[in-house]
Amino acid sequence: MKSSALALREGVIAVAGGVGLVVLAFLWARSSVGQIDAPQYGPGWSFWLMLAAAVLFAWDLSRLAIRRAPRLAQVLVPVLGGLFALGLWEVLTRAFEVPEVILPAPSAIWGAILANLDLLRDDFIQTVLKGAVTGYVMGAAAAVLVAVLVDRVPFLRRGLLPVGNFVSALPIVGIAPIMVMWFGFDWQSKAAVVVVMVFFPVLVNMVAGLAAADRMQRDLMETWGATPTQRLRYLSLPAAMPFLFNGLKIAATLALIGAIVAENFGSPTLGMGFRISTAVGQLALPLVWAEIAVAALAGSVFYGLVSAAERRVTFWHPSQRGK
Amino acid sequence: MRNAGPVLAVLGLILALWYAGAVWLNAAWTYDQASRNGTEVTMALLLSDTMAQERPVLPPPHQVAGELWKGLTAWAPSSKKSLVYHGLVTLTATFWGFVFGTVLGCLMAVGIVRSRVIELGLMPWAVISQTIPVVALAPMIVVLSNTLGFGERIGVENQLVSKTIIAAYLSYFPVLVGMVKGLRAPDQMQLDLLKTYGASEIQTFRLLRLPSSMPYLFASLKVGIAASLVGAIVGELPTGAIEGLGARMLIGSQFGSPIIVWAALFAAAILAGVLVVVMAGVERLVLKKMGMAQ
């Protein structure tokens, strides 16, 4: 009885909120607030009413989804939140007639993306594929190799962990100008910066991971007469995977930062960092935001790919089960 | 202290590798000079020359240390040549970024713990926000704070505003994650107890959730302040700053003098170390005061 009454109430609110929102949106579009209200007065009351309705509606819909369909809500609510933020951005920039120099509306940015597809693709290849990904792979591979070697010498391992942890917290991006001096303006110097930035977080995590197998498991390998290589292959490496991926995920976000920062110290007339700084100078703000959008997307996809790999490799780990 | 020996050994190893690298990388210049003068390069000359070049490819540690020492002590802290001065400029942005980032992170954490809608709607985007390379945003933030003139209105430089924003952007996330964990740390039994006492939500928050989140908060603050420093320095790089440690790196690279870059880099490293140590000290004090010290 109680739950059905609750469901009824939820349903009424959701439907009423939705209908109200649509009606208000319709009214707002018809009266086209942006034209009637001069910018110095800001948008009129119908605008704020609609905004309030939208907030309430989105909130209510989210609560409904969480209660009724918890699994669906995991996807629905974040998407709704993101769309809501985008919509708010669009509506506010239009309603207040924000100059493009300050903040372009999402639709203007989308237009810039479509208009500059070739440019964006070339910059993406230069910065992300050549600079960040190459450096990431080399740095991570080097870190794993060093970690495996260090693992054989417990003395070194004990020393390397605190030092590596400290170095990971340092502003390593500062080596960017040095790398540009050493390796020139093209992508090699960017990759070099990324190699150094990625190296320490991966190293520290991998070293900790290789030590993660517990005493009992090691003893078991011993009783089976496993060679050091076998022990590494069947015990230490698999046990280190959750740690390794932790490091790889941290490194994934650092890689793009390194590649873009390095472009500020000299680059060919290509690359996302270069494009952003020159386009800011030309006040071509929609293009700047288009580059930012690509960078954001690239960063998120990169992180997502590492997370997906983590799920496949460490499916047995408690943190991955039940996902 | 058990690890002091190994740590020193590793540091010694790094130093040795560095010296070897300096000889190796700077040798080209020595040979070049020698062939121009028509002299022979002896081992002794190679060693002494690679250690003391004007513009080495890789300055040996003692040159960097010398420049660092000169930068810290040779000029008054108010002089623009002093690394202390530049360090303070960066530290100011780091501090404000850290403060705003921490407050933002805590507020978001409270919202997330209080409401499932906020959690689901905000948390994935908070994660995504950290995968976005913030340096891509840096020039934009500079333009924004210059155009809006926000800094002038509150009486600080626009440069500081943009650096603070970037520093806050990098430092809020660790605080957010730590605080969410910390505010959820009390177990069901403790929550039930407060319920039987008839405690209100706010009382539960103040008496149970907040105190139990403190160890988590401080663990995050240590990460956050280091991240904030990185943000402040990154904020100086693409924005044409003329003051601050990041600006020193920029100037060093423009004038082609690596020693300045290295000295600034190490000044930043020392600053990071000091900040983390200070934070750890505050942590020990507060936890002791709250009766939670281990």
UniProtKB/TrEMBL annotation, chain B:
Q: Which UniProt keywords apply?
A: Cell membrane, Membrane, Transmembrane, Transmembrane helix, Transport
Q: Where is the ABC transmembrane type-1 domain?
A: 83-283
The subcellular localization recorded is:
Cell membrane
Q: So where does this one cross the membrane?
A: 83-110, 122-144, 164-183, 216-235, 255-282
Q: Which GO terms describe its biological process?
A: transmembrane transport
One Pfam family from the UniProt entry? BPD_transp_1
The membrane-topology field of this record reads: Multi-pass membrane protein
| Origin: domain of life | Bacteria
Q: Name one GO cellular component term.
A: plasma membrane
Give the PANTHER family listed for this entry: ABC TRANSPORTER PERMEASE PROTEIN HI_0355-RELATED, ALKANE SULFONATE ABC TRANSPORTER-RELATED, MEMBRANE SUBUNIT
Similarity annotation: Belongs to the binding-protein-dependent transport system permease family.
Query: Per its record, how is this protein called by name?
Result: ABC transporter permease subunit
